Amino acid sequence: MSQENVEIVRELIAEFAKTHRAVGRLTTPESVWDMGTFRGWPDAPEYVGPDGFNEFFAKWTDPYEDWDMDLDDLRDAGHDRVLAIVTQRGRLRETDDWVELHFGLIFTLTAGLVSHTEAFATGAEALEAAGLRE
After folding, report:
1. Rounded to whole angstroms, how far apart are CA atoms 38 and 13?
2. How far is 107 from 114, CA to CA, in rounded Å?
3. Cα gap 85→106, rounded to integer Å
4. Is residue 117 exposed (0-12), middle (13-18) or buried (19+ Cβ within 10 Å)?
5. Class of the CATH-defined domain 2-130
6. Interval 61-104: pLDDT, tens
7. Where are the domains of the chain?
8. Considering the chain, what is the average pLDDT of its residues?
9. Which residues contact 87 (CB under 8 A, 6 or more apart)?
10. Residue 94 and residue 104 in contact, taking contact as beta carbons nearer than 8 Å
11. Are 86 and 70 in contact (CB under 8 A)?
12. Where are the alpha helices (DSSP H) in 40-100?
């Protein structure tokens, strides 16, 4: 099941990278996007369901004219969890300035769907929370 979970998360991230929208067919209806573990996030600690995720993402990307994301690492974290390390890049509105952020996500799956995602400000924090090493 763990490799299946990794492939589900890979598909979710790939589809999200194209659409920049919640991927409802790969998440539970009440899936939680958890920013409570992300140092410095000034808004709500949790967003529920596809609408909640889309609300979060609109706030996350509001400062940017252009935004994209690459998957750097994806691995089984045990206990129906998958770790992803990603890099995002954004061009700030009305500037030529680009910023980059490397961060980590831990996805929890229930019955083959993502039910909870924790965001971490760094990949190292996500690795530590998952009990994994670089």
Report:
1. 19
2. 6
3. 9
4. buried
5. alpha beta
6. 999 999 999 999 999 999 999 999 999 999 999 999 999 999 99
7. 2-130
8. 94
9. 69, 70, 72, 100, 101, 102
10. no
11. yes
12. 49-61
